[in-house]
């Protein structure tokens, strides 16, 4: 509840124990009864439609599902799937013979306990009434570190995201506060024109803060470098859909053709949404070239976006001319 642990339950069950009791001794007919006795300890307090999958076996299962579905992202952390869509596949892993495990995209070092893990997972998911599975890439090591690091609250401060801060500290030498400020003001000013849901503003602000995270790799094509880093290193607190959108907004770089749209389209909103967010970011970046320390204001009226405070800056105007507008309207400097 609100990021706090309200109750815990530990069950005396594990993959190695299951292997020794039932798989090694060929007692699989007794396995369902054993699992039902264990899961009977789970009461209504713990039932929830969303289940977070932690641990090697569950990550291996998620990885196999990603491979089967030709999933566009390689990042396992935050991979989500509906249990109803994949239950039959997980059951096939649980019930296959060890000699047939090579038919599944599972690493050999998981062969010894993957079937046991699948049985436990399915039993627990049923007992918890789980519908959606969210894969976690973290485990005991991260837990031990954060328990000590975040004492006594065990929570990160408000408005602090460790993934965003880590990327900023490692890769960004300049401050992007002006870009984020301009992007927010432009989004608000053009609200009636773009009609985007307010939830996209947070995505836009993250993109504004991290738009040049790949610049240190190489100046030319830095937007593509930045998009790659976002897809592979922005983890904590972001869904795959959010990561894909942030990367697309940055990678599109104010152009008409959306960055890797065909590859990630199942994770992205409509193309017009991506174009609008990328346009706003590109406009904010162009204004930041010469107007970083200026308090610009934005107003949309008469089908014209009026930018007050940057009238004398020719460089910004030239950069703005290169940006592809998602819709026909005028931009004027007053």
UniProtKB/TrEMBL annotation:
<dbReference type="Pfam" id="PF02541">
    <property type="entry name" value="Ppx-GppA"/>
</dbReference>
<protein>
    <submittedName>
        <fullName>Ppx/GppA family phosphatase</fullName>
    </submittedName>
</protein>
<dbReference type="Pfam" id="PF21447">
    <property type="entry name" value="Ppx-GppA_III"/>
</dbReference>
<dbReference type="InterPro" id="IPR043129">
    <property type="entry name" value="ATPase_NBD"/>
</dbReference>
<dbReference type="InterPro" id="IPR003695">
    <property type="entry name" value="Ppx_GppA_N"/>
</dbReference>
<dbReference type="InterPro" id="IPR048950">
    <property type="entry name" value="Ppx_GppA_C"/>
</dbReference>
<feature type="domain" description="Ppx/GppA phosphatase N-terminal">
    <location>
        <begin position="2"/>
        <end position="150"/>
    </location>
</feature>
<dbReference type="InterPro" id="IPR050273">
    <property type="entry name" value="GppA/Ppx_hydrolase"/>
</dbReference>
<feature type="domain" description="Ppx/GppA phosphatase C-terminal">
    <location>
        <begin position="163"/>
        <end position="288"/>
    </location>
</feature>
<dbReference type="GO" id="GO:0016462">
    <property type="term" value="F:pyrophosphatase activity"/>
</dbReference>
